[in-house]
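Narrative summary of target 7.
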Amino acid sequence: MFGDSPQSPEAALITAILMQAYRDLFVTAKSDGQAAFTTQAEQDRVIAFLTDRTGPHARHRAFLCSLIGWDGNVLGERVRRMMEGVDFPMPTDRTPAAQQRHAEAVEDIRARWLHLKNTPSKRAPPASPVGASRAA
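Modeled conformation, tokenized:
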């Protein structure tokens, strides 16, 4: 994904945005009622941005990636595979404490991923009672 050629300032900005989204996965999120750097709702949006297959988050990711020659679908698939168990890259800080924090963050991310996957979407339209009444 990363080439050795220098990036334009615009490409560097887009790359920074995508990389910040990835790093935001590892920030400890607080519930929405608590003051924190990242709320759970914000982290959930990051997860959606990086993993959704369709919808506005997937389109936005694909658009940003296309501007720098990446494939947004490939990026989404790679992050989904990591959520499902493929190793997340280790942090550059290789101290035991950093590795422990990373392992704990990965565990939290995967637990949240499973929760979001198994929770019905709030965006899904409600079932129509019209069809049920017609069948009766």
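The radius of gyration is 18 Å.
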